[in-house]
Amino acid sequence: MNSSRDYKIFSILILVVAVIAVSFAYASLTHTLKIAVASPGKEANESWAINFNNLSKGKKTGAAEENSSPVIESSTTVANFDVTFYSPGDSVTYSWCRK
């Protein structure tokens, strides 16, 4: 009878270890990775200046539909666009165009 009890205890211990391992794996995969890169000769706390202008027409993939094009409200804000996706893999991509 002792081996049956040992088997149950061992099984429960393995189950607990597996749950803990899966929890750590899930936590590490869902964690947001933040990377700060400093260029040589520049301060690490300098910020980037990102400005929007001259967006391209939307490049559609799959069955996606562009209901309304994006509007550049200010040099840092793109808004008022409406896109419909019908299946996984659908996308609409906008690029910056030099003019």
Description:
The structure is a single chain. This protein is of the alpha+beta class and 99 residues long. The protein contains one helix and six strands. Among the domains are: 1-33; 59-93, no CATH class. The strands form three sheets. It has a two-stranded antiparallel ribbon with strand order 1-6. The relative contact order is 0.15. The mean pLDDT is 80.
SSE sequence, one letter per element = HEEEEEE
Average of the residue pLDDT scores:
80
Structural class by secondary-structure content: alpha+beta
Quote the beta fraction.
15-25%
Overall body shape: elongated
| Largest sheet: number of strands, sense, barrel closure | 2 strands, antiparallel
Short description:
With 99 residues, this protein is α+β, with helices and mostly antiparallel strands.
Index terms:
99 residues; alpha+beta; two-stranded antiparallel ribbon; two-stranded antiparallel sheet; 6 strands
